[in-house]
Amino acid sequence: MNIGCIVEIHIQERLRITVFYSLYVPSQQAAATIVNQIASLFKTRCNMWTADEISKLCYQRFSELPKRGKPEPGREWTLLAAVVKCSVSPNQEKVEEVVSLGTGTKCIGRSAMSSKGDVLNDSHAEVIARRGCIRYLTEQLRMAVCGQGSTVFCQGEEMGKWKVQSGVSFLFFTSHTPCGDASIIPMMIDRQSQPCPPIRSDEIIPNGTNEKAERLNPKRRAETQTDGINKHPRLEEPEKSQYELQCGGSLVENLTDSPAQAHAESPRPEGKNALTNVVLRQRDNVLTQQSLQDIHRTGAKCVPGGPEDPLQPGLGYHSTGLLRVKPGRGEPTLSLSCSDKLARWAVLGFQGALLSHYLQGAVYFSAIVVGRCPYSHQAMQRALITRCSEVTALPAGYTVQPPELLQSSLEFAHSQAQTEHNHQPGKGRVSPCGAAISWCAVSDQPLDVTANGYKHGVTKKALGTSKARSLICKVELFHSFLSLLAVTDKSHLPESLRGKELQTYWDYKQVAQSYQQASLQLRSQAFPLWLRSDRDLLQFH
């Protein structure tokens, strides 16, 4: 039976296209695939990207990298994240370019953190990609300051300040749902209507712990398995069921939310992605009305001093909406979950405190695209947008900037599911790759491969020296910033850096007044339990 529905696509503020489409949807995955195909009909008119186009672009960039640091096919898996720059060419065509890419699943414990800023504390793919993008933005600012023609920045209205060029935007891609709150999503009883196989009775542990649910969370498993350091196999499509996506009255209600509801949600999608986003949201509404058996687990733990997870069997295992820290290798970490960090970047921007000295306003992600994996639009909305939607009193240049949320139908070839599917008996157990890869579009040493927070392959003798440092660790990014400062004419220094005796990383971060004010508002209104690094760990030069 085919289901028909009418959807209004908002192309511009005053331009709407009403489309009638008829869908028979055999599975959740088919929903995303079919709607992407429908959305492509608007490509000529709207000239916009789709979620599948973005994921394909990121997977292709990864495939072009050298083998070093990549998972061993059929035995090791990893997660991928990337930052994509979208711009308009002189002939008015949209151009998408991967400017930073990261892989990784690990975090170091508190005792392994360094007061020299020379260790990567958090090597989850999302964090690696963002830190690589800071390298990229720093080089672009240097080019702008030196008059070499940046493709990102142009001169702002304030002395010494720069702003993102008109027509340039950034979006974020991750191959898997971010760890933390966004990963707490329902698992359905019906095998074909949920994002991964259901729990069988023989997989339920009497004490309420669900091994299947925990296994399906790649990042949690990564922190508890043995470390280890190319082509794209594809999983067979699951058997099709009679599951149908119900598009009707509730869809219309979702498109006409009240102003209060709209404020807490991501912007109404435009062009090619409109139908995809609508169907993903509607899918969640349909699924949550069905009988739930359990939820996917996240390995991230609630921050100390706040509410705890009930740890009850099934749906009562987790509390939602809480700040969480990533698990380490046998000891706690101070690294907030990727869900929490993405939510924070939607208020403070992803440029960080140092680069904010040079920028007229924060730089935000316009969209977040997730690859094929267990996914819930409602959970993403709750974790990344709703928690910070009411933050007010932000300084000039900062605002609550909720990204558009989308899912691709394309899965990463080196995901845990793909790796287990292709695993051969006798080849050792499937485990997460111990290496993390950072690549960014910079002119000097774009590739950086690390393990355990240091350069991959470094000897114990070199630990503590510059040879062991990742190019995206705190001290290296600080030195890149100081190089930018050195090439800036004193008469064109940003106001926040003039006439001050600044020496340490901490000093330069603290005098970024607008950024610190925005951070204070975010903590006081939305994230009062946000963990902050000890000052002693930030006093390096």
UniProtKB/TrEMBL annotation:
Swiss-Prot/TrEMBL GO biological process terms: tRNA processing
Ranges for region Disordered: 200-241
Enzyme class label: hydrolase
UniProt keyword list: Hydrolase, Metal-binding, tRNA processing, Zinc
All copies of domain A to I editase, residue ranges: 100-540
Protein name as catalogued: tRNA-specific adenosine deaminase 1
Similarity comment text for this entry: Belongs to the ADAT1 family.
Purpose: Specifically deaminates adenosine-37 to inosine in tRNA-Ala.
Alphabetized GO MF terms: metal ion binding; RNA binding; tRNA-specific adenosine-37 deaminase activity
Organism field: Oncorhynchus mykiss (Rainbow trout)
